Amino acid sequence: MILLALLQGAVVTPLHEVNRLTVPPPAVIAIAGATIIDGRGGAPITNGVVIVRAGRIVAVGPRANVTIPRGAEMVDGAGLSVVPGLIDAHFHLDGDQGLPSLYLSHGITSVRDPGAWIENYDGVRASGQTIPRLFLAGPHLDQAPPAYPEDSYLVRDAAETRAGVDRLIDQGASVIKVYFRLPPSLIAEAVSAAHRRGVPVTAHLETVDALTAMAAGVDGIEHITSFGTALLPPLAAERYRQSVLADNNARRDGRYQVWSGVDLVSARARMVVDAIVRRRVFVSPTLAVFEVQAGDRGATPVQVEGFRRMVAFTGQVRRAGARVVVGSHSSVPHAERGWAYQREMELLVEAGLSPMEAIVAGTMENARFFRVSARLGSVEAGKMADLVLVEGRPDQDITAMRRIRRVMLNGAWVGN
Ligand SMILES: [Zn+2]
């Protein structure tokens, strides 16, 4: 028994999408003349060449250094940039069966849904549409009364938490999401049970302080708002916590109240930023979902100021060296259907990331967050060929990420 336990503890299965893609086409494709942006933050290669064979990138470099195989399908990349397929850390299907394929056509080749039953995706998987790689969590772990009963798996103690984590991973979860009523002791149990299986844990926080959740070992934090109570003086933080414990919906207006009052140059703010950096926690700000700008219909000064500070804090954690990633949340106030991801990238640039950093946040950094960086996340020889061709230079102007020209998933052009 001990040996078995040791073996189980030691075996770390690679994390996979639930819709493993079929055998890629054998053809050789050469994209020549484009600017190559590698997704790791390396210097762009102008007039570059990318060679794809049987679903994998086999060569990348300046045109002078790469031999194009005879018979390759040639793609003229003049005026275009090649970026890695975009990875979304926070996608919600919400019954919109056409959204995954629309996202794919906008360059998003991998999505992770941090809180929905895996079977919610059965319909779209069976539909015959070409869709992104799906990394799923199953329902999030929460306690009664849950904010989203249909997306929740309720656990009452350590044993239920550990069993719940194992059950979700057995069903195909490649991440575990803990939700905001789960107390710190059970967050720690979920982390221990998930890490034993090689699976990361990410958290949406309201009632648990982010410092406490990070100390419990979470790998990621969803939503910049999750840091709100950690930034407040204790009395104000407890007042917010009590309001949400009494009524889940108190968070909706309450979060802007919290953020309009946070002091980002305080010793407390420095401590939170230091902890995020020191613990190497992935931060998925999902700014776009909270965006309120002056002039929006019904916008209050508190909301506008609260959002402004959310953006400022995102820039602050990045400048300090935090691992910031892109999560779109699918449906956001300032983007048309299908463009929430691009809006999030633009807001990250407004927060102070360079366009290149925003691209890295959406590609290689997310691949690390998903624990799939050995095969996804960059334009490098040996990686799976998930690629996006955009017009212009997104490393100079992030809005170029809206000018998608072609998308390649697993070595095949989407839409061909
Ligand atoms: Zn969400």
Structural class: alpha/beta
What are the distinct ligands in this entry? Answer: zinc ion
Strand content: 15-25%
Low-pLDDT regions:
1-11
Helix content: 25-40%
CATH topology of the largest domain: TIM Barrel
CATH architecture of the largest domain: Alpha-Beta Barrel
How many β strands by DSSP? Answer: 18
Rounded to the nearest angstrom, the radius of gyration is 21 Å
What coarse outline follows from CA principal-axis ratios?
Answer: globular
Mean pLDDT: 96
Number of discrete domains: 2
Supply the number of helical segments. 15
CATH superfamily of the largest domain: Metal-dependent hydrolases
CATH class wording of the largest domain: Alpha Beta
Specify the biggest β-sheet.
8 strands, mixed
Distance between the termini: 53 Å
